């Protein structure tokens, strides 16, 4: 990830994400769901494209409200597929809706998405990938790895000498507690 730490701080789109979000632990369900949807939509595209469309995703997916998205039906799918403010890929749209339903179910089984992540932490990347593929849709190795790294469950978001890494270390993200 050293390249990201070299280029992102001065970049007009990446700077804020690099300095304030990437690798920082998050607990709020809507933030975890947002990150999962964004990572899924990034597949085959640049992260800059996703960050530029982020507000469009927030509007289109009701602020990443899991209850709202899990209840989406055919009209919502058609609306999303017609929304130029997001990535209009049917498989990715259907995955977001399905995954919202899964996250809603994690409330009953584990107390929520963050608690589910905590219950399975720590584990090696390959085990995370198998778990995510079994649990969610459209979550291959790259998507799962970036999702977990971006939330502090796996190391590697920042170079060791990146100033942001020191801020993250002070928060003791899950990978540092393993």
Automatic annotation (TrEMBL):
<dbReference type="InterPro" id="IPR052891">
    <property type="entry name" value="DNA-3mA_glycosylase"/>
</dbReference>
<dbReference type="InterPro" id="IPR011257">
    <property type="entry name" value="DNA_glycosylase"/>
</dbReference>
<protein>
    <submittedName>
        <fullName>DNA-3-methyladenine glycosylase I</fullName>
    </submittedName>
</protein>
<dbReference type="Pfam" id="PF03352">
    <property type="entry name" value="Adenine_glyco"/>
</dbReference>
<dbReference type="InterPro" id="IPR005019">
    <property type="entry name" value="Adenine_glyco"/>
</dbReference>
